[in-house]
Design a protein that fits this description.
It contains 8 helices and 13 strands. With about 300 residues, the chain is of the alpha/beta class. It folds into 2 domains: about 170 residues, Toll/interleukin-1 receptor homology (TIR) domain (Rossmann fold); about 120 residues, Lipocalin (Beta Barrel). Helix 1 packs antiparallel against helix 6. The radius of gyration is 28 Å and the shape is elongated. The mean pLDDT is about 85.
């Protein structure tokens, strides 16, 4: 049996998990193809990709269409499913749903038998359906028991993909835009002030700050007047809004947050925390303002009324 796995490029690991599962349990009876396959003879290869997709869909008996909240609105997966259904009545299209309800599928696909790809029992049901010796026969229960190691490996791959997806959801896109963070990489200089209850604003600290981009987070490391390091870590939105947290690895529980906005060549915002200028001082709740620039003079003159 030839199985075409339709998926978005970002969900290549889900397609790979299905391909590996079938190789383990179907004993060569199921041959899979998916566009992002990295095997030497797999994937798109050279040539016109539309023609390649068309040939593979024509040759497939079954199309597994992978849908997630990120890909459900991608027209290409829906097109491949519809194209397969239009080729011949014998074509079978099976939607595989991850991390969402089946009701979110495009309405024409809701009439098809669908499966939750992260539900072990439903995955077993689908495998039993595809691995039947003959349409009217069922898979030997003893054979199903022997699938357990391959099913365990499949579920581990799905859980790893889920964890990676959550990390991306938290630290990419609206939460963290790596391209924006990359533009901020390098040396900066920061001026921190303290806002007092009586309305006064005084200098808290001047310090050089090094900005790094880890891909998932932005990291800032400041150097204090005493030679210590002040680590900050957080995220940057595509519009240049920056949210950071900081903490201490020492015995004292120094911690806090910083909110910044990128305005031209300046990062300006507010900060607050349970902190002190040095580890020898008593900790207290402090809040203030901060401005950062790549030029020390620009920072020092930004609020010229402050000491």
């Amino acid at each position: 049996m030839r199985v075409f796995i339709s998926h978005s490029h970002e969900e290549q690991k889900l397609a790979e998990a299905w391909s590996s599962l079938f190789k383990g349990i179907a004993y060569g009876l199921i041959d899979t193809w998916y566009s992002s396959d990295q095997a030497p003879a797999g994937g798109m290869g050279p040539g016109r990709w539309r023609e390649k997709i068309g040939r593979e869909l024509e040759g497939a008996e079954v199309v597994l269409a992978i849908f997630t909240p990120e890909s459900v609105n991608r027209p290409w997966i829906f097109f491949e499913s519809a194209f397969a259904l239009g080729l011949a009545p014998s074509k079978v299209v099976i939607p595989i749903v991850y991390y969402m309800d089946m009701a979110a599928l495009p309405s024409p696909l809701q009439d098809l038998q669908s499966y939750y790809g992260d539900d072990r029992n439903q995955v077993i049901d689908l495998c039993k359906r595809l691995c039947r010796p003959k349409p009217a026969e069922s898979v030997d229960p003893e054979r199903v028991k022997r699938w357990s190691p391959d099913l365990d490996s499949y579920i581990e791959q799905i859980e790893a993909h889920r964890a990676e997806r959550l990390n991306k959801a938290l630290f990419y896109g609206d939460f963290h835009t790596s391209d924006t963070a990359e533009k901020l990489v390098g040396p900066w200089f920061a001026k921190w002030t303290q806002l007092h209850d009586d309305g006064r604003e005084t200098l808290w600290q001047l310090q050089p700050v090094t900005v790094e981009n880890t891909g998932w987070r932005i990291r800032m490391v400041g150097t204090t007047a005493q030679g210590g390091l002040s680590p900050f870590e957080g995220v940057v939105s595509s519009k240049g809004h920056i949210a950071l947290s900081y903490w201490s690895r020492e015995e004292s529980a120094i911690c806090g947050t910083v909110l910044l906005e990128l305005i031209g060549t300046i990062m300006e915002g507010t900060w607050q925390g349970f902190t002190a200028k040095t580890m020898r001082e008593r900790l207290s709740i402090v809040k203030g303002r901060v401005v950062m620039s790549r030029k020390r003079a620009e920072v020092e003159e930004y609020w010229d009324r402050l000491p």
